[in-house]
Amino acid sequence: MPELPEVETSRRGIEPYLVDQTLLYVVVRNPRLRWPVSEEIQSLRDQPVFSVQRRAKYLLLELAAGWIIIHLGMSGRLHILPKDTIAEKHDHIDLVMSNGKMLRYTDPRRLGAWLWTKDFTVSTVLAHLGPEPLGAEFTEQYLFEKSRHKRTLIKPWLMDNKIVVGIGNIYASECLFVAGILPTEPAGSLTQNECKLLVSAIKT
């Protein structure tokens, strides 16, 4: 599964080709992903694209009618291609744009997701998420308070999206190493200073 920096790289890569363009129509060759591709997405026509955002490892495409929520899963990839590019076996979804390009979603394992919502702030897949690791809300005090009385080992606790989003296995291991914290200790054992070191390692 892509780490959070890779998802942000994908967002930045596709943004210039989508924002201020019009989504002409959608081609769905195989709707059977982790969850079936939303019917609302399949029927989209002539939709201005206002922004491409990210929340945790989800990409959010803001359209006039609502939001497409994309999760890449284990093997999903997004490509910007000429709109007449021939599809191959694992190319499941195309968003055909007014600039002659298309956003193509390729996913051999089909564990990604394409969901629809009118308002992403109340989406069930996003509502439970903790703060962004680089955001102002993620502080040593926040982490210290969340860790109190927790018996879960520090590493899996840190990887819980309800605590902080986007901290995957490799990212967690590296940050704990930099902060000098054993991943096998319970989260409740973290001191205020260790939380300071850990937040600093995550943010850098």
TrEMBL record:
Keywords: DNA damage, DNA repair, DNA-binding, Glycosidase, Hydrolase, Lyase, Multifunctional enzyme
Classification via InterPro entries: FPG_cat, FPG_Glyclase, FPG_N, H2TH_FPG, Ribosomal_uS13-like_H2TH
GO molecular function, one term: class I DNA-(apurinic or apyrimidinic site) endonuclease activity
Coiled coil: none
SUPFAM superfamilies documented for this protein: N-terminal domain of MutM-like DNA repair proteins (SSF81624), S13-like H2TH domain (SSF46946)
GO biological process, one term: base-excision repair
PROSITE patterns documented for this protein: FPG_CAT (PS51068)
Family, per entry: Belongs to the FPG family.
Subunit structure: Monomer.
The name this protein goes by in its record: Formamidopyrimidine-DNA glycosylase
Source species of the chain: Candidatus Regiella insecticola 5.15
Upper taxonomic lineage: Bacteria, Pseudomonadati, Pseudomonadota, Gammaproteobacteria, Enterobacterales
